[in-house]
Amino acid sequence: MQLEIYDLRSKNASISVDLVAICDSFSSLLWDVEYYQCGAFEVYIAATPANVEAFQLGRVVGRDDDDEHFGLIESVQIETNAEDGDYLTVSGRFLTCLLERRIIYPTFSGSGTYQHHVRNVLARNAINCGLRSIPGLTMGVVTGSCWTKTTRLQVSYENLMEWVYTICEMIGGTINIRIEKSLLKCDLSQGTDRSILQTANPQILFSDTYNNLLQFSYAADASVQKNFAYVFGSGEGSDRKRTTYFSGDEPSYLDRYEVYVDQRDTAHDDSMTDSEYLEILKASGEKSLISPKIASESAIAAIPAQFQYGKDYFVGDYVSVTHSRFGLRQNKIQLIGMIESFDENGRSLTPTFQEV
Q: 286: part of which helix (H) or strand (E)?
């Protein structure tokens, strides 16, 4: 596996992407792919004049075995030591972090699919929007049924990247920006169900019984959950617009965790009906619900006999995890993050799982 360093230069609304260096020798590499947030990377390498020249702020780091993720260099640190040698630490986030440079302005309001909403918000704030455009950014492919769900929403002044990831976590999708032929392609996608509860795809099972689950930790926290939202919009006193939101059957008694959502700043335009406005409030209520925090982190075999990361399963997929010793069985759990680590000891994988 080699690292590829690209020079990313803006030419008004377009960009040029030029390969300036190839690196096949480094002390360590962390490659952190995330599903519901922007991923990150870190390279630890000898601080030679050639490496210092290659790894510059604003350049892009890619891998010859990964055409989906590209890291933008945001931090460079040089440390000199007469005994241990000089080292360079290069770190940053993947290209989706470019969206963090924009806020949503002006207000966007509309009804339609989530794909429609995200495409429109990106177009108005990052693509083909004059001086606010991110050079070279264009829409790529959209896959997954979660993006065809419909809703009505209104949003303004939120950070663009944070808003998109909020939508992703709410519907179960993700966003990624990759380089393709001097363009920054923005893809919307959804993980694949590879758990033991389905038969359409090959099943992925991590278990101490199969010797592919090397370490395992499990944590559950029900104190943070909210499952019933009271949403209040524009107006004053008894005239204030209001609604409620919950998913599935209405929770009751000890199973009910309420939250108040203040949407006073959500405008009631003359162009929309009361029912359309209430749909916008409901969408805000949906974003405010919080599921019980159940997560597990593990160390899994980097080269298992059964299947391989990046070939048989990917971040965002739904898999199964069992630990026979404790009788713990998670029949369908989502892989929401994977840290690949390369150093003198070889390659290791540290996944992060989240209950569905």
A: helix 274-288
Antiparallel, parallel or unpaired: β 66-79 and 60-63? antiparallel
Provide the token pair at 61. Answer: 């780091």
Q: How far apart are CA 174 and CA 186, in angstroms?
A: 11
Alpha carbons 107 and 277: distance in angstroms, whole number: 14
Nearest-CA neighbor of 90 among 44, 52, 46?
44
Determine the Cα–Cα distance for residues 260 and 33; give it in Å rounded to an integer: 34
pTM (two decimals): 0.85
The residue count for the chain: 356
SS3 track for 143-200: CCHHHHCEEEEEECCCEHHHHHHHHHHHHCEEEEEEEECCEEEEEEEECCECCCCCCC
**DSSP at 239:** G
DSSP symbol at 99: G
CA distances from 265 to 156, 160, 235 (A): 10, 18, 10
Placement of tokens 């939508």 in the chain? 167
Q: Return the closest-CA partner of residue 30 out of 61, 9, 53.
A: 61
* Residue 203: half-sphere exposure toward Cβ, Cα within 13 Å: 12
Q: What are the residues facing 204 on neighbouring strands? A: none
> pLDDT tens digits for the chain (356 residues)?
999 999 999 888 889 999 999 999 999 999 999 999 999 999 999 999 999 999 999 999 999 999 999 999 999 999 988 777 899 999 999 999 999 999 999 999 999 999 999 999 999 999 999 999 999 999 999 999 999 999 999 999 999 999 999 999 999 999 999 999 889 999 999 999 999 999 999 999 988 888 787 777 777 777 889 999 999 999 999 889 999 999 999 999 999 999 999 999 898 888 889 999 999 999 999 989 988 776 666 666 656 667 889 999 999 999 998 888 778 788 999 999 999 999 988 888 888 888 87
Residues sharing a CB contact under 8 Å with residue 164, sequence separation 6 or more, in sequence order: 99, 118, 121, 122, 175
